[in-house]
Amino acid sequence: MEYNIKAILDGLKQRISTNDELIIQTPGGNIEMAKFYFSPPAETEEIDRLSTLFQVNLPQEYREFLLQHNGAKLFDIGFGECTDIYSINEIVETAELMPDIVPNFIPVARHPSCTIFIDTSREKKYMFSQAGGSEFNFLAMSFKEWIETLILSSGNYFEERIPQLLFKTIDDSELKIKKWLIEGYKL
Question: How would you classify residue 144: left for phi > 0, otherwise alpha for psi between -120 and 50, otherwise beta?
Answer without folding.
Answer: alpha
